[in-house]
Fold this protein.
Amino acid sequence: MARDRLSDDIERDVSIRLISRRENDGRTYNRPTASEVAVLIEGDIGNAVEKRDIIIEKESGELQRISELHPLYLALQYPMFFPHGEDGWRPGILHSEASLNNSKKKKPRNKVTMREWLAFHLQDRSSFLQSPILLLASKLLQQFIVDGYMMVESQRLSFLRHNQGLLRVETYKNLANAVNRGETEPSSAGSRIFMSSSVFQSDGYTIEIMRFVSKRGLRPEDRPDILSRVFKMKLAELMKDLKDCHIFGRVIGGTYTIEFQKRGLPHAHILIFLLRDDKFLEAANVDKIISAEIPDPDENPLLYALVKENMIHGPCGKDFPTCPCMIASKCSRNFPKRCIESTMVDDDGTPHVERLRFHLPDEQSVVFNDEDPIDSVIDNPTIGMTKFLAWMDCNKSSEEAQQLLYSQFPTKFVWKQEERAWHPRKSGFALGRMNNVSPNCGELYYMRTLLNFVKGPKSYEDLRWFDDVLHPTFRGACYARGLLGDDKEYIDAIEETSRWGSGSYLRNLFVTLLLSATIAMPSKVWEKTWKHLLDDILYKQRNALQNQALRLTEDELKNYALLDIEACLQRNGSSLRRFEDMPFPESSTPHPVNTLVSDELSYDRVYLGEEHVHLLFP
């Protein structure tokens, strides 16, 4: 940009200024040395992808902001690929007439999508003159692909926001409350569901890719489109061989996930499930299909070279302290590892895992159409037939079920989705895994804790029942069972800090402990430490009201302290109401502080008196 402006006006006087102090790193705009191009997105992709700041300068000198979906964006951003200023993708591009005429069925869509447009330009075809320029551009091609991906995501998210399927979600309790208030319109309850998902797969490195790109003077990472296609084809063929050719036995199911290495070359982790009779339960059988030995260099030199180059860690250790795996003079990968003379296997194979969900009373999620009346939604009998509620119903009639925890239930019972009921298991085996819950979820977290100890409950009350006492909360039931700590360390911390910290500092410390969700019984900590927490309340109220003779009762001091704690929690997006056992401050106090009156009274009487005398007797 600076060079272009200088060439436009060669008579302009310019000067060079050497800046001795830098606010930014001078290497920021150095030429990149990595072999790949990536995009960094700050925050959530759903919020950031549609807010790209693209500004162009018109011939008139005015600046204009355009969208990355503008037809001229690609021509302006990649003039090497579009030297004649050709339009990029735009709405309304039709499919070719040949494809329409050859189709026997009427196509529901005859417009080219942005993804199709980009895929067309990324095809390697000798007759298309623009392809060689694009596909030989190395890192610029990578940038183009990344940019294209972001454009597709931007368009897709924009479509979802403007054409979202009219679904809403809300808890059963809130829907019932809406009906009781006479609100039967679905638009008055729930929130819309944004059902967006994206999968971007880049794929790996093979000899065929090396042979293809080497003829064009490129490296494998310069053609991520080729990497993607070859890896996907080989992975699909491998999965087909595993399932159809019974390489390891009869397969009843399989899945895989792709992980991306730092240099852009991914690999797949594959999990297959075999019939019980075909599982490898003995070490001798495992050794037939898995070998962890280095190949003989004489018998198989090619395989030996591949293993030596790509599958051996190191060298690292004290003799190689600069190795990337070395942390604190030790290998972070724990090499060298202890040699195992023989293969060891477990007594059983890997079982099926049943994901178990749970919810508080009337807190199950209800998905409904945007046009369904709320009263008909809550009258649907399937709402009360969740997997969790059906488990408690099964406990009422089955003695075997009463001997099992919720996580153990799938080992003896199977869930029939079409009937929404649990039935005794006749064959097979499965393990139960309950969803993880953060301590910040409050009662849901404590109910999950109880589910790990209470067998066969028939209702929510059974979970809260212990030692002939029905506790009002799940937290209280956990505390009574000794499943929670006594919070002594938090009480000691506040008492120790009170020796040098102010009351305001202690209240901030108490708020920090509440937000950390590590206190078992906040009310117990409050009862033990409230005298320290309201240490400076009276002093602050006297100054605020300009009344040094002010006297406050113990309850009034507690209320002011709770008001201060509540204000601090609200600034952090929380409230004392989230902690059921904690007292909540009264909305009004016997000595309310009006901020306007307080500001008017907050003047220095001594200073004003001296100024008055000075003005009268200068």
User: Anything to note?
Assistant: Confidence is low (pLDDT under 50) at residues 42-50, 192-205, 346-350. Residues 304 and 310 are 10 Å apart (CA to CA). Residues 488-601 form one domain. The first strand starts at residue 54 and ends at 57.
